[in-house]
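Action item from last meeting closed. Structure (323 res):
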């Protein structure tokens, strides 16, 4: 049974006459009559009643035609769906990210990606850097945004590029003595109760704070540990202490808080986007295109790692550049 047999049967049901159906199909009547008879023999039952008033589906024919319509719809849709998938317009993207990426660049990136690819299913997972790297290596994610480069087993097989740079800033309540000051010094921080993010999963951040304030700093030893940057800002607003976090916190101003630069300026680990090149899908290529457009310098970094983009890459096919 071929798709043309389904089209012939549907045309006959619509026109209720062999001659009119044959004319609509652009074939002669005898071949149409033969094809319908062959179809009935293959199905094993009569599909049409031939009467003087016209040709009408039997009960079996009506059931067959219902399925035939759906089958032809699926056949018609199949190449369309294939082409959309090849362009990265459908499918899924599994993204792992650290919380601070929700301040920048994810709001712009996810907003634009969602508008351009509304039929892609996004699976978003907030997770620490160590977990994000492990999930990416294990094939549980398509792409991850981590604090600092990926570390651990398999990290060397990942393509990684920075998508954001940070330095340390302080946040205090509007009633704090530091409110209104453009900056605070490290010596001032040593004399204040501090609010910091957990360091167990981000050793580079922990090491940087210890290097800044002293390995045996009483301020760090007695610091309030917040879950993420949003909690740091919230606790600072409550007057708990001086919150320390990445400069991307400036993208989340809150009434009743004040941000100060920390002097000397202290760089923090970059936000790093990573993925496995051998598993690049059309959807991931589309996501990387949005990253290229919105994150300065990322396009050049990706080209350096993957090689210049070719026509296949722009269509969502697998890239062939090396690491």
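Sequence:
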């Amino acid at each position: 049974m071929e798709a043309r047999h389904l089209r012939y049967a549907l045309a006959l049901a619509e026109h209720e006459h062999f001659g009119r159906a044959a004319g609509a199909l652009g074939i002669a009547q005898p071949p149409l009559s033969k094809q319908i008879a062959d179809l009935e023999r293959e199905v094993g039952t009569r599909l049409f009643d031939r009467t003087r008033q016209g040709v009408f589906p039997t009960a079996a024919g009506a059931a067959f035609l219902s399925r035939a319509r759906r089958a032809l719809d699926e056949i018609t849709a199949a190449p369309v769906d294939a082409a959309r998938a090849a362009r990265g317009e459908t499918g899924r993207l599994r993204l792992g990210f650290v919380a601070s990426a929700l301040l920048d660049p994810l709001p712009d990136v996810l907003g634009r990606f969602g508008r351009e690819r509304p039929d892609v299913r996004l699976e978003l997972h907030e997770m620490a850097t160590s977990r994000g790297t492990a999930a990416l290596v294990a094939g549980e994610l398509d792409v991850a945004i981590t604090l600092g480069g990926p570390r651990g087993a398999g990290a060397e097989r990942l393509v990684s590029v920075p998508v954001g740079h940070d330095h340390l800033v302080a946040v205090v309540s509007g009633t704090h003595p530091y409110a209104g000051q453009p900056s605070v010094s490290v010596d001032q921080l040593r004399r204040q109760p501090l609010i910091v993010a957990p360091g167990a999963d981000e050793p580079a951040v922990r090491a940087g704070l210890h290097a800044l304030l002293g390995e045996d700093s009483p301020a760090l030893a007695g610091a309030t540990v917040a879950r993420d940057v949003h909690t740091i800002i919230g606790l600072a607003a409550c007057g708990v202490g001086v919150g320390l976090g990445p400069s991307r916190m400036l993208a989340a101003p809150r009434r009743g808080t004040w941000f100060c630069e920390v002097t000397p300026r202290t760089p923090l680990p970059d936000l790093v986007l990573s993925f496995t090149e051998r598993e690049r899908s059309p959807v991931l290529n589309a996501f990387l295109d949005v990253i290229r457009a919105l994150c300065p310098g990322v396009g050049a970094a990706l080209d350096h790692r993957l090689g210049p983009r070719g026509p296949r890459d722009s269509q969502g096919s697998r890239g062939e550049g090396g690491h």
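Note appended to the action item: The chain has three domains: 3-86, 91-142+155-163+272-314, 170-269.
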